[in-house]
Amino acid sequence: MGYIMKRALITGITGQDGAYLTELLLSKKYEVHGIIRRASSFNTGRIDHIYQDPHEAKVNLFLHYGDLTDATGLLRILNEVKPHEVYNLGAQSHVRVSFDQPEYTADVVAMGTLRILEAIRDHQQFTGNEVRFYQACSSEMFGASPPPQDENTPFYPRSPYAVGKVAGFHFTRNYREAYGMFNVNGILFNHESPKRGETFVTRKITRALSRIKLGLQDYLYLGNLDAKRDWGYAGDYVEAMWLMLQQDKPEDYVVATGETWSVRDFLIEAATYLELDWEAVVKLDERFLRPTEVRELLGDASKAKNNLGWEPKVSFKELVGMMAEHDLELARQEKTLTDAGHNFTQLGRGE
Ligand code: NAP
Ligand code: GDD
Question: Are residues 84 and 120 in the same domain?
Fold first, then answer.
């Protein structure tokens, strides 16, 4: 029998995880299809380095316009692509912003998951093709449940985002049980990288401290420094997503490092790397506090280790160093351009 090239469809391909997952699947010789949103400016910066113009080369990466709020569009893309695997990574993924935009967040995160599950159900029914489905769940679902958290820890969501993810979790499990679909929930703890969005706290810190180091910015404004998170490296975590879809049986998994650090710890580590006195430059801005906070996340990923053979490779210290080094280089480039008279206006915003 000839070799069958696997096809994957990724929602949220332009996000941090979408970019790493695309690199991983292309390295495994998949044909990768991604759903992108129409925007008035380019939003494909994280995947531009792997995208090739289909007019000029034989390519394995294809992009389709779509949105998790648009059910008919999702079904059309599924019928066109006929994927073997679907990774649902698309989301309004910022926890604090979900308090400002609760209804939109729930629409994308909860209803968006239901829409894509329905589209897969219809597609499978009409074509007979099995589609394996990965749902990007979150440690935020554990919220106020005390650490350590594993697959048996009760959910106690503390934000509209987290409530939406809990609904997505249950839709995914219910469709597995009701229709025998190969659906898995990956409950991933925080994971970061140089591709992390600049309004999440780790990247906000490495970006700002690097600019302060080079005299491009004076202060860094933050919210709660006492919150603790289990921070891993995104490049390691997309491997776990893929492994979950290669198993004989669809099951749900926690993915985490098993270590927890405070926001202050992250600040100290980044400032030490950059040789800065963080206490002289960090100020509190109450706008960055949340109406309900998640105090401490610490994951127990024993099941992923035993069943998937998955373990994190990059340590906390290596992660902070990797991000600080990357952002220091960005700041150097910015300084060169600024010294040459170029005017940057959009930096310094943050959530
Ligand atoms: P991210 O960088 O914020 O990327 C989110 C992606 O979703 C982007 O591609 C975004 O498109 C897309 N998107 C937003 N709204 C959409 C809509 N209405 N329809 C279709 N796509 C939409 O997030 P990430 O860090 O890569 O995380 C990936 C997934 O894992 C998310 O579902 C997130 O909630 C979840 N998660 C993340 C973590 C973490 O620590 N990173 C942990 C647990 C779970 P644009 O580029 O156009 O904005
Ligand atoms: N974003 C942000 N900005 N967070 C701050 C700031 C600030 O200025 N100051 C303190 N924090 C604190 C937040 O209150 C929170 O306790 C912690 O830093 C981490 O915030 P984020 O980096 O925004 O991440 P998150 O933990 O809320 O959510 C991320 O991880 C989840 C998994 O646990 C996101 O990636 C979610 O999409 C993901 O599900």
Answer: yes
Residues 208 and 236 in one domain: no
- Clarify whether 140 is annotated catalytic: yes
Which range (40-49, 77-86, 232-241) has the least confidence? 40-49
* pLDDT tier, 54 (very low <50, low <70, confident <90, very high otherwise): confident
Report the pLDDT value the prediction gives residue 348, as an integer from 0 to 100: 52
Helix (H) or strand (E) holding 222: strand 220-222
Q: Do 114 and 127 have their domain in common? A: yes
Domain-located, residue 161: yes
Residues 264 and 122 in one domain: no
Q: Report yes or no on 344 lying in a domain.
A: no
Active site residue 138: yes
Whether the full predicted model's pTM is greater than 0.85, yes or no, is yes
Q: How far apart are the CA of 294 and the centre of ligand 1, in A?
A: 19
Report how far ligand 2's centroid is from the alpha carbon of 168 (Å). Answer: 20
Q: Which atom of ligand 1 lies closest to the CA of 16?
A: 26
Q: How high is the pLDDT of residue 4? A: 80
The whole domain housing 218 covers: 201-226+260-297+315-339
User: CATH number for the domain including 332?
Assistant: 3.90.25.10
Question: Is 205 among the domain residues?
Answer: yes
Q: Which of 173, 289, 283, 304 is nearest to 232 (CA)?
A: 304
Q: Does residue 1 register a pLDDT over 60?
A: no
For residue 14 and ligand 1, the question of a CB distance below 6 A is answered with yes
Residue 208 shares a structural domain with residue 157: no
Q: Which pair of tokens denotes residue 264?
A: 């202050």
Are 230 and 113 in contact by the 8 Å Cβ rule? The answer is: no
Task: Give the separation between CA 222 and CA 15, rounded to whole angstroms.
Answer: 23
161 is an active site residue: yes
Separation between Cα atoms, residue 85 and residue 94, nearest integer Å: 26
Is residue 2 scored above 70 in pLDDT?
no
Specify if 307 maps to a domain: no
230: nearest Cα among 311, 149, 145 = 149
- The average pLDDT across 132-142 equals 98
- Give the ligand with the smallest distance to the CA of 286: 2
Q: Which residues line ligand 2 (CB under 6 A)?
A: 93, 95-96, 138-140, 189-190, 199-201, 204, 222-224, 227, 229, 263, 288, 290, 293, 297, 350-351
Token match 């941090």: residue?
16
